[in-house]
Amino acid sequence: MSILMVYQSLFHSRFQVFGADEDSCQTREEINFHDVSTVLDHILKSVPEGSSLAFGYTHRKVASHRSAVGIFADEIVPHLVSKGYTDLVLEIFPKGTPADIIEQEIEGFNCTGTIGAEMKRFLDVYDKSSFTFLLDKIGQLNKERRQKGQEGIKIHSGGVDYSNIHQTFLYPNFDSFPQRLNMARKEVARNTKKTIEFLAGKGRKVFSLNGCLHNDLYPHPKKALASFGKELKHSLAGRFVEIDLVIPELSARRNYYQDLALSSKCLWKGFIPDFGVNLVSELGKNSYLLFWPKLS
Questions:
Q1: What is the CATH number of domain 32-291?
Q2: What angle do CA 253, 64, 138 make, to 5 degrees?
Q3: How far is CA 56 from the centre of its chain?
Q4: Rounded distance, CA 59 to CA 213, Å?
Q5: Span 174-201, pLDDT tens digits
């Protein structure tokens, strides 16, 4: 079946299920692919060479759910490294000064692959097993590439202010306090933006992993301060791409689907495929979502 035929069948499926009056999605592109590597190749061919890629994910709460971070580690990171991407910005680690222990440990990790004690403290906050798997995967990948005389991948902090962590990230149940949560969101947006701009300005090929709220190219006005996407679109002269990773079980939890890169009345569940990976672009240029099937 051709890509055009797949696109057409998906379009008609959405029309039949939701009806023209119920589903307001203005889909620019919808294609089903066999695997993630093929999707990424399609995106890279569609955007300016060397574009910075910002991947958005939703945290899982229980280990029985699939992890977007795990998929990112297992399938996305190796493929992007093979395409020349060299630098990964992670919001899980707070942004400090060069003298701070967190930045020293990150620098050490980039040399040895060893996860430092201070780094581990922040892995404990959200989905420790998935982020540990991501770092272990990067460490092993770097070891293999260096043995071949190839450049590895460097990680960088892009999270909350390290000097303020006890008021945000490490404050007990901080996300239950709107003022603390908004403070953290603004710090993440600012720090990730600055780090990507700095690395891209040096000619590095950069990608990042953030919550779906932060990488929006076309943010809702009420959420604009939490997003770095719109500003990076201008400062990087359009060489910026958002890619949301949509695991149905996670996006349905606590209405997290509201943070996806879709217009407000677009019915997100209609994009969930029965097989493969669904690539969707609905809001505008350089804005993508990758949908995985539901678990049976």
A1: 3.40.50.11550
A2: 100
A3: 3
A4: 12
A5: 889 999 999 999 999 999 999 999 999 9
